[in-house]
Amino acid sequence: MILIDPWITNPANPEGKDDLAALDKVDLILVSHRHFDHIGDSVDIAKRTGAQLVTNYDLGSAMVADIGFPAKQADFGTQGNAGGTITVLDGEVSMTFEPAVHGSTLSPPPASAGGPQQVLTGGEPGGFVIRIQHGPTFYHTADTAVFGDMQLIGAADHINVMPACIGDHFTMGPKGAALAMQLVHPDLVIPMHYGTFPVLTGTQDELNQALKARHLNTKMKVLTVDEAVSF
Q1: Cβ–Cβ under 8 Å, residues 191 and 177
Q2: pLDDT at 105 over 90
Q3: Which of 102, 139, 162, 205 could form a disulfide with 143 if both were Cys (CB 3.0 to 4.6 A apart)?
Q4: Residue 101 banded pLDDT, cuts 50, 70, 90
């Protein structure tokens, strides 16, 4: 099993604690950047399952040093940086680290009551192109603005499925996501990173309208919590 930014106990998932406890076999945990809602439950999952961390090297080092990710599960074999590709799971999956336009800091609780609040850095934010042998290719944008070099990602791989943030405020909104579809030309977009906080105002309907306004053939699939989809 591969998890990406596993915030299982997020407020949109009422069964989060039970779902987290049920995860007993995880091979890889992909973390795009250091914000709390993307590191999520990574450390807990790693300690219980032995899952290996896939992220940029700077973030991996910070997660080990600052928040207790198991060091033996965060090594050179599954860490890299933008433009680099790794092959995992006995050759069944390859992943390329892609850039993103966002931030990557974490503010943990002070060490003691009334103590100073630290802001810890975690390398550059990023996304992932994930190629499944004899299966689909995914481009997970993670949190980002739309940027022109997305066109190069679409030129390098035929993207079958593109989870893309649409919430606005902290990431691209629906119109930006539609422009990203025009640059990458995926077969299917899955909207994400919206609706969990009031400021994330982008909606799936707005994305659908933005896709139509650009006359794009990209289909949209809206996922619900606990829904399983086969490609």
Answers
A1: yes
A2: no
A3: 102
A4: very high
Q: 153-164: buried (b, 16+ CB within 10 Å) or exposed (e) per residue? A: bbeebebbbbbb
Per-residue pLDDT of 45-57, as tens digits, reads 999 999 999 999 9
* Amino acid sitting at position 45: I
Q: Report the C-alpha gap between 34 and 87 in whole angstroms.
A: 23
**pLDDT at res. 117:** 67
- φ and ψ at residue 211, rounded to 5 degrees: -65, -45
CA-to-CA dists, residue 205 to 24, 201, 222, 227, angstroms? 36, 11, 10, 19
- Asked if the model's pLDDT at residue 143 lies above 90, the reply is yes
Contact by Cβ (8 Å): 163, 137: no
Burial of 49 (0-12, 13-18, 19+ CB in 10 A): middle
Strands 52-56 and 79-80: parallel
Extended strands (E) in the chain: 2-4, 28-30, 52-56, 79-80, 85-88, 93-99, 105-106, 120-121, 126-132, 137-140, 161-165, 188-192, 219-220
